[in-house]
Each structure stands twice: as C-alpha cells, then as structure tokens.
C-alpha cells in the first residue's frame, strides 16, 4: 500500500518490575486503511503492544509516533482517535445495550438525547438496532461481542485495536463476525490492528500479518496477503487461501523454533 503511515512503533521495549521483558526492540509501521494482524504464540507481547499503542501502558524504551511525527507522549493526544475491543465484551451488566454503547459518548460529556442517533446508527451497523433495551444477560456471546464492537464504533475512530475479540466464540459465530468486521472495515476505511492466535483467521482478515516471537516479543516476519477484497466463503475454500495459510503457519513455527533455540542456547 502507498498511503502514509498512520502509526509507527520504533524500537519498543517493555520490561516489567518482576524482570520480565515482554517486548524488545519492536518496530513496525501501520499505514492508513490497513488491516494488520499480530500473530504469535501466547506470551509474545501482542496484547502488550496494543496497550502501548492505546496509551494504556508506557513503553520502557522506544517511541510511538502518529502520522510520522511526535513522540511517545503524542499517543496520548491521539487517544480520541482509538477504540479498543477486548477479548471479553466487558459490558456493564446493569446497563442496557443502548447504555453500554452510549458510554464513550457519555464520558465525553455528550447527553443521551444528543447521542441517540449515533448510538442507534452504531447498533444498526452490527445488526442490533432492535435490542437497544435488552441487557447483557439476555444476549448470546456473539451478540455481546457485537455490542462491544458497536461501542468501539460509536466514536468513529481512526484506529481500531482488537485483542482476540472472537477467540471465545464458536466457529460459526466467529466466521460470521469475521465477515461483518470486514464489511465494516471496507465501508469506513478504518485502520485495524487485530491480535489473534489463529493462522486461518489472520489470513482471512488481513492484508498484512506481523508474526511475532516470544520471550521477548519481537517482529520476526512481516507478510503481505495480496488477495483482493471483498473476501467471502469462496476465498476460505480456495487454493490461494490454503497456500497463504501454509506459508504463514510455517513462519509461525519458525518463530516458535527460534524461541526454543534461544532458550537452549
């Protein structure tokens, strides 16, 4: 892609007080409009990288820059441009679907009446416009995740961070939400950074896959999935999908083998 970078990680290292080095010298650029998956084994720092990008955790070393300018501190000034979808829906059980999606606008000081059109539009985008008065306990796992996505979309972010949002869902629901996410991404031209353990999910969704090795987390391969969108079930069963899955799987195994070799050494 030829568009300029929206965000860059430059030599990011993250160490914790117990001595664990979660990330070491991690660098990558994400261009505007890209769908980038971070793929790697548990413990490779994928979620830590997202939290640093979102300004939820500081880097020990290195910088996060937006639009090729600024410093690590500049990520805070762009916090309004970011929405975060976590692995669990993290909904407020005492609030309705409408109330949960309204929350980001409420935190910005906007009244419920003034926010109604925006909230209902977000719910319509994820197919839940008829569930505004329902409570989380009345929803399926897939519907709860749709509410979480609607809450992320209601602020119209420039950058959408997603930390294994579909990992706990059954395969049919996961496939459906993969398709819905791609439709929304294409419609609104967001930039998405998506964390996953799944080779198959990463290939289906992404135009780039950043493969990470663990202990400490770092980028070991940056792979392009040069298949046009829209993608559908025909792509899932195609030879080119299988070929990309094999290539990405091999890169992931190489990253894991590298970790084992370093530990032995």
Identify the notable features of this structure and list them briefly.
265 residues, 9 strands, 3-stranded antiparallel beta sheet, alpha/beta, 6-stranded mixed beta sheet, 2 domains
Description:
- The protein is α/β, with parallel strands linked by helices and 265 residues long.
- The chain folds into two domains: 1-78 and 159-230, P-loop containing nucleotide triphosphate hydrolases (Rossmann fold); 90-157.
- Helix content is 40%, strand content 23%.
- It contains nine helices and nine strands.
- It has helices at 46-54, 74-77, 97-107, 112-125, 141-153, 171-188, 199-205, 233-236, 239-264; strands at 5-15, 21-31, 35-39, 61-66, 82-85, 159-163, 191-196, 208-213, 218-224.
- The strands form two sheets. Strands 5-6-7-3-8-9 form a six-stranded mixed sheet, sandwiched between helices. A three-stranded antiparallel sheet has the order 2-1-4, with helices on one face.
- A hairpin with a 5-residue loop joins strand 1 and strand 2 (21-31).
- Helix 3 packs across helix 4 (112-125), helix 3 runs parallel beside helix 5 (141-153) and helix 7 (199-205) crosses helix 9.
- The longest helix is centred in the last third of the chain and has 26 residues, at 239-264.
- Residues 68-76 have low confidence and may be disordered.
Mean pLDDT: 89
SSE order: EEEHEHEHHHEHEHEEHH
Strand arrangement across the biggest beta sheet: 5-6-7-3-8-9
Tally of domains: 2
Q: What is the C-level CATH assignment of the largest domain? A: Alpha Beta
Based on CA inertia axes, which overall geometry fits? globular
The largest sheet is: 6 strands, mixed
Gyration radius, in Å: 19 Å
Question: What's the total count of β strands?
Answer: 9
Q: Which structural class matches the secondary elements? A: alpha/beta
**Cα distance spanning the termini:** 39 Å
Oligomeric state, counting identical vs distinct chains? single chain
CATH topology of the largest domain: Rossmann fold
The proportion of residues forming helix, as a percent range, comes to 40-55%
Number of helical elements = 9
Give the second-level CATH assignment, the architecture of the largest domain.
Answer: 3-Layer(aba) Sandwich
Percentage of residues in strands: 15-25%
- Parts with pLDDT < 50 across at least 5 consecutive residues: 68-76
According to CATH, the homologous superfamily of the largest domain is: P-loop containing nucleotide triphosphate hydrolases
